[in-house]
Structure formats: C-alpha cells, structure tokens
Specification:
By secondary structure, this protein is an alpha/beta fold. The protein has a domain of 320 residues: Alpha-Beta Complex (Amidase signature (AS) enzymes), CATH 3.90.1300. Helix content is 39%, strand content 12%. It is built from 16 helices and eleven strands. α4 links the parallel β2 and β3. It is globular and about 65 Å long. It binds glutamine. Glutamine binds next to loops.
Length: 483
C-alpha cells in the first residue's frame, strides 16, 4: 500500500516541493484523467490555489500538520461554503451552501487543498454511483466496470491518484463498498466519532463521514484530523486524545468469523479472506467462530429504516428554499409536486415512496416499528460477539465490481450487494474495508475489519498489519500523480 499522504507531506516539509506546485500537478492530473473516469463533478481549482497559498504560509511558519498542502476531494454531499454541493441531483442544481461542513472546516484550517467535489449516487442512494445526474464514474482499474457506490467518485479519484485522499459518507456501505470495488482503503468510523454537520442527510441515524485513502496509515491520519465532538452535531461524541497508534501487532488478537457473513459469497472472495485470516493466525492471532443469526434480516431492516428517514429528510426539497424549481405551475402545491417530480431521479422517488409507506399510520407498526425492534437485536448480537473477540472479519461485498449498466436489469442484486456492510451501520460500529487480493478477472477484492463501538483505533491497528507486512499490494493505476 502506498502512503500517499505521508510521502507528499515529507516532500512539502523538506522544501522539495511547495504546496502550490503540488496543487498544479494534481490539477493537471485531474484535467487529464477526469474526462475518462468522470470522478469529479465540480472542480474547485481556484479554491485549491488559494488553499495552497495558505498551506505554504503554514509550512513556512512551522505550523504544518500532516494534511497541510495535500490535495484532496470531498463527496458532493458535504457542504462547502460558496462551492457547488449538489448530491448529484437535479433538485440541487446550482446549489451553493452558505456554511462549511465541520469536516471541511477542520481540514481547511489545517491548510488542506480542495480540488473539487466528486461523483456519487443521487442523494447517496445506490451501490454503483450510476444514479448520479452527471452519469456514472468509471472504475480506474477497469473502465468497463462501476466504481461501486455511493461514494464512487471519491473511490475513483483516490484509486487513480487524482486526489491524495477523499472524504466519503457511509449510510449502508457507501465508503467501504466502493473502496473494495476500486482496491483502496475505506474507513467508516463509529457513529458519532466524526461530526455529520454539513453532511446532506440520507438516513440520519446511519450516516457517517469517513476517509478513503490508498493506505491504512493515510486513513488513520485523516481520521485523526476530522474526528471529535462538535457543538453543531448532538450525536457527535468524544474520541481518545492523541494520534491513532499503528503497531500492526496482532499477537493474542481474537478474530471473530461469523458464518452468516459468508453465506452466498463468491467463493473467490471467501478464499481471499480465509487466506488473510491465516496470515493473521500465523502471526499469533486466534480465530474464533461466532454466530450472528440476526444478520439474515439486517438488509430489510436497513432498507426500511434508511428509506423512512430519507422520506423525512428529503421533504425539505420543495422548490421554495433550495436549488431547482419547476418552470411552469399553477399554485404552491402544484409547484412543489412538479419540482419534486422533475427534480428527483427514479431511485430517489422509489425510496421516498417506500419510506412514506412504512411510516404511514396503517403500516407503521408492521414495518417501521418492527424494523426498529429488530435493529436492537442486530445490535445486541453484534455486541455479544465483541465479548468473545476483538474484531470481526467479513467480506465487504459478496461480489467484485459489476459491469457498467448491470444494475439496470439487476436492481435486486445491487441491493443484495449491501448485505455485508449494512449491519455495521445498523449497530453504529466502526469498520474498515481494505484490499485482500484480486479475482480471476483481476478485479480487487475487499474485506472488512469490524470493531466494537469506539474501538476505531483498534480496527485501524488490526488493518495496519496488512500494510506493514505488504500482504496485499495491488498494481498502481497509471495516469494520476506519481511522485
Ligand atoms: N447502497 C446503500 C443504499 O443505497 C448504501 C448507500 C450509502 O451508504 N449511502 O442505501
């Protein structure tokens, strides 16, 4: 795995390169590669140049942090003051927020350099990034394949190194699954560890912002820079002081393997994870078999809760205050109806209707209430596992990257591809996806390391073992910045 952030940071500190020069290199790379992979939907090069100037000042004054002067990207659902933030939806066409998301504020203050906003499924609803109003990003490892989703643009940009790192959001797998499809590292922190202020809401009880990087060390660096309590997000929570320590020492570590996570998984993926687990065992970790029967119902529980919350969160797009408004209408009700009919895509409408249905008075008990009850069971069964083991190993997705267009006729399969990631969001746990090999077609395979609540540092440390011992080095994608 390549430590992009620390190697660039060393060059900046030694004076080998200025932040302004590095920024120009990334801008050129974006201009060259992006027309092929469609990762960025809005570039912010002028902002980037200003950020770089500020970064060079910080470096000169000896005030640099590891992210000062490093060019990066934000998913298009993270609010950036004065800069387009559209959730890749027509309904937010032209929308420029008037405040910064806390994560962006934190990074900007440290002199991070924002190159632009990246492609995603509309309102983060999807697993291929194909529901974007700007068209799908392409997987840099095989441009006939999807990037995964919904943070597909971030995954593509980081994979091709036209961003040194990026921030995505994960409601049911949207950081981890595209990371696995593109062969990079994606970390979803514990719910509350990173402020959601300024993240455009999909399912508020599930949403979480996290880093997407080329290495585990880089993920830890970014995580440390964005975590912590925020007065603007009452669900945010304190995290331990100091930097996340990475040792990669797995002696005595108890790794739980739950049979239910491996049912229906492509055999190549299963054997790649088994192989990884063997490497850990050789280094002194112990494998513990556990069972989580409630995993079987996690997927429907997720879709009921996510859609219910989405139907409420998306109520605010009415053509009055935000973005798009229908051109012709006869009164307020008609204006709202037309705006929403024209402004939202098919997948978003499907989920608003499903969410409204499960919340409606006649069906509330049968669906929403029941899903909330089963959510507790999923949570408690996962918590019980952590009484017996330190972390769980699981596939990130049951398959590798789909061909482009596949989700059109196989929608069900793309929903099913979330089966291994959604339980983590339901229970608010931290989990990282990292590469563990390739399939026969040469496509990356990802695996997840899942931890107990607020064991984020442990999850990253356990993952660091793979990086430390070079257990999975995928081929570098050419075309982006190479230093
Ligand atoms: N694929 C899942 C969905 O469509 C997860 C999306 C996400 O995490 N934002 O809901």
């Amino acid at each position: 795995m390549k430590n992009v952030i620390s190697s660039l940071s060393a060059k900046l500190r030694s004076g080998e390169l200025t932040a302004a020069q590095l920024t120009e290199l990334y801008i050129q790379a974006v201009q060259k590669v992006n027309p092929v992979i469609n990762a960025y939907v809005h570039t912010t090069f002028e902002e980037a140049r200003k950020d770089a100037e500020y970064a060079d000042k910080l470096i000169k004054e000896g005030k640099a942090t590891p992210l000062t002067g490093i060019p990066f990207t934000l998913k298009d659902n993270i609010a950036t003051d004065g800069l387009l933030t559209t959730c890749c939806s027509k309904i937010l066409e032209g929308f420029r927020p008037y405040y910064d998301a806390t994560v962006w504020k934190k990074l900007r203050e440290q002199g991070a350099v924002l190159l632009g906003k990246t492609n995603m499924d509309e309102f983060a609803m999807g697993s291929t990034s194909e529901t974007s109003v700007y068209g799908a990003p392409l997987n840099p490892r095989d441009t006939s394949r999807v990037t995964g989703g919904s943070s597909g643009g971030v995954a593509a940009a980081v994979c091709a190194n036209i961003a040194a790192y990026g921030l995505g959001s994960d409601t049911g797998g949207s950081i981890r699954q595209p990371a696995s499809f593109c062969g990079i590292v994606g970390f979803k922190p514990t719910y509350g560890a990173v402020s959601r202020y300024g993240l455009i809401a999909y399912g508020s009880s599930l949403d979480q912002i996290g880093p997407m990087t080329q290495s585990v060390s880089d993920a830890a660096t970014v995580y440390d820079a964005i975590r912590g309590v925020d007065e603007h997000d009452q669900t945010s929570a304190p995290t331990p002081d100091g930097q996340t320590k990475l040792t990669g020492d797995v002696r005595g570590l108890k790794i739980g393997i739950a049979r239910e996570f491996f049912e229906g998984i492509n055999p190549e993926i299963k054997s790649a994870i088994d192989h990884m687990a063997e490497e850990y065992a050789k280094a002194g970790a112990e494998i513990v078999q556990v069972s989580i029967p409630a995993l079987k119902v996690a997927l429907p529980v997720y879709y009921i809760i996510a859609c219910a919350e989405a139907s409420s969160n998306l109520g605010r797009y009415d053509g009055i205050r935000y973005g798009y408004r229908a051109a012709n209408y006869t009164g307020v009700d008609d204006m709202i109806t037309r705006t929403r009919t024209e402004g939202f895509g098919k997948e978003v409408k499907k989920r608003i209707m499903l969410g409204t249905y499960v919340l409606s008075s006649g069906y509330f008990d049968a669906y929403y209430k029941k899903a909330c009850l089963i959510r507790k069971t999923v949570e408690s069964q996962l918590a019980e596992c952590f009484d017996r083991c330190d972390v769980l190993f699981a596939p990130t997705a049951p398959v590798t990257a789909f061909p482009l267009g596949y989700s059109g006729g196989n929608a069900l399969e793309t929903y099913l591809s979330d089966v291994c990631t959604v339980p983590v969001n339901i229970a608010g746990l931290p989990a990282v996806s990292l590469p563990c090999g390739t399939d026969a077609k040469g496509l990356p395979i990802g695996f997840q390391i899942i931890g107990s609540k607020f064991d984020d540092a442990k999850v990253l440390d356990v993952a660091y073992f793979v990086e430390k011992h070079n257990l999975c080095d995928l081929e570098e994608v050419k075309g982006g910045v190479s230093l």
